[in-house]
Automatic annotation (TrEMBL):
The lineage of its organism: Bacteria, Pseudomonadati, Pseudomonadota, Alphaproteobacteria, Rhodobacterales. Keywords: ATP-binding, Nucleotide-binding, Transport. The keyword Repressor does not apply. GO terms for molecular function: ABC-type maltose transporter activity; ATP binding; ATP hydrolysis activity. This is ABC transporter ATP-binding protein. It comes from Palleronia sediminis. The keyword Protein transport does not apply.
Amino acid sequence: MGRITLENVQKRFGEVEVIPPLNLTIEDGEFVVFVGPSGCGKSTLLRLIAGLEDVSGGEIRIDGRPATDLPPAKRGLAMVFQSYALYPHMSVRKNIAFPLKMAGMDQAEQDRRIAKAAEALNLTDYLDRRPGQLSGGQRQRVAIGRAIVREPAAFLFDEPLSNLDAALRVGMRMEISELHTTLATTMIYVTHDQVEAMTMADKIVVLRAGNIEQVGTPLDLYREPRNVFVAGFIGSPK
Ligand code: ADP
Ligand code: MG
């Protein structure tokens, strides 16, 4: 499960309306990319869904249940942070286990989930290493592993590859896409990179100043951009 609906969701910081009321449905299992220039509200929108920010108005539903007032830990979603959010003094195993330990899960179930995540991410041979002994790509996979073990209804990524070099970024893009195929779980992925959006998304949400300019498949947006902003941003010939 992982259907997320936003109904008239809005966000103000003081007097400034960063997200005017917007409506959006994310279907179960979809790979949705929020794309738009820096400062357009991508992170804010993701953080509203995650519960890391409170909405100023509107309703968020996850699998039909009202989630607007739930704290992040009760929403069943997992935010993937950049790899530098790992604990440097803990082994890979302990980094991945951390959210499960916090939740008080029994050891056998923790071990089962860690083994499964490590296999999906090709980290089985690295579980006893520390983050400092891993490559950038492996560290990013550990950060994803920490999300996978929680078996969330959806994964939320906020520019997870922006601190990796260009070559690594291309590889990780493919890995995340493969992971989406393997897990068949909803993923919401924030980026300002059009190429990432066009190559990874089932559905792209183009944002400008907190407004949704267009929602569609990469092909829809390329062929039928609704306006000059979308065309320019997506790199459409129109
Ligand atoms: P993006 O992720 O697309 O770059 P953000 O969601 O981070 O954009 O920011 C959208 C706008 O909201 C920006 O103008 C930013 O300055 C503002 N903003 C974000 N967080 C806060 C905050 N905690 N307080 C005040 N303004 C904020
Ligand atoms: Mg951002």
